[in-house]
Amino acid sequence: MGLTHRSCGKGVNKESFHRASDKADFVIALAGNPNTGKSTVFNALTGLHQHTGNWPGKTVLRAEGRYINQGQVYHLVDLPGTYSLLANSVEEQVARDYLCFHKPDATVVVVDATCLERNLNLVLQVLEITPKVVVCVNLIDEAKRKKIRLDIEKLSNHLGVPVVATAARDGEGLEQLIQTIAQVVNGTIKTTPFQVKYEEKIERAVAHLEPLIKQLVGTDFNTRWLALRLLDQDEVVIKALRKHLKQREVFTPSIGGELWA
Ligand SMILES: Nc1nc2c(ncn2[C@@H]2O[C@H](COP(=O)(O)OP(=O)(O)OP(=O)(O)O)[C@@H](O)[C@H]2O)c(=O)[nH]1
Ligand SMILES: [Mg+2]
C-alpha cells in the first residue's frame, strides 16, 4: 500500500509538533518545475495542506513542515516551482539561494514523468549546487496512461543520484522516497552527480578561480558553482558572498582582490 495522509502525514506531523525540542535532525528541500506535484508530495509527507502556487506575486513564502522517519525528524521545505536556478525571477532566486546558502541536508527534485526532458534541465542545475539529491519522478500514473516508458535505473545511473518513481496523488512510491532520502542523508547511498562540462575556455577559467574561492570560503560552499556564477557576473551571488564573508570576517582583499576586481 502506498503512503497516504492518514498512514503517514497527519499523524507524523502531530507527533513532531509534540516534541519538546523544535530542532529537526535533517532539512530536506523540495525543488522542481511548477506543477510537478511538489506540494502534493509535501502534503502527503507532512499532513499539511499547501495549495498549488504557494509563491504568487511579490511576497515569496516558503512552506515548511515536518515528518518523522525511524525516530528522526525531517524538516521539509517546499520551494517555489522554477524552470531554472539562474535567478531570473523572484521564485528562481528564492529556490537557488535556499539551496546554496541554507544548504539543506538533501534536495528532492520533483520532476514530471510526462515531460522528463524539460525537467532534467533543472535537475542538472541542482546537481551543480549540491550532490545530495534524490530525483522524484512524479506523475508516473500519467506517464503510464500516455504509454511513456521510463527506465528509472538507467536514469539514476546517468545522473549519479537515486531516482524514485511516484504517483504522489495516490501515495504511490512515497515510502520508497522517504527511505531513499534517509539513505542519502545518512550516507548509505553515496551520490556521484553528473556534472555538465562547459567549453574549454570556461573550464579553464573555473579551474583558475576555484582555488581562489576555496581560500575565501573553505568548504562552506560549492566552489565550482560559485566560480561559474562569478564568471556570469551574478550580482546576487556576489552580494550574498560578500555578506557571508563579512559575517565570518574572513574577507581579505589580498586573497579576494582578483575575484572582486
Ligand atoms: N495524476 C497525477 N496528478 C498529480 C500527481 N501529483 C500531483 N498531481 C496533481 O498535479 C497538480 C499540481 O500538483 P501540485 O502539488 O500543486 O504541484 P506543485 O509542483 O506544487 O506546483 P507549483 O506549486 O505550482 O510549483 C495538482 O492538480 C495535483 O493534484 C500524480 O502523481 N499524479
Ligand atoms: Mg506547490
From TrEMBL:
All residue ranges annotated as the FeoB-type G domain in the record: 25-187
Membrane-spanning residues: none
A GO cellular component annotation in the UniProt record: plasma membrane
Family annotation (Pfam families): FeoB_Cyto, FeoB_N
Coiled-coil stretches: none
UniProt cross-references to InterPro entries, sorted A to Z: FeoB_Cyto, FeoB_GTPase, G_FEOB_dom, P-loop_NTPase
Entry-linked CDD domains: FeoB (cd01879)
PROSITE patterns to which the protein is assigned, alphabetical: G_FEOB
Domain of life of the native organism: Bacteria
GO molecular function, one term: GTP binding
Protein name per UniProt: Iron transporter FeoB
Organism: Desulforamulus ferrireducens
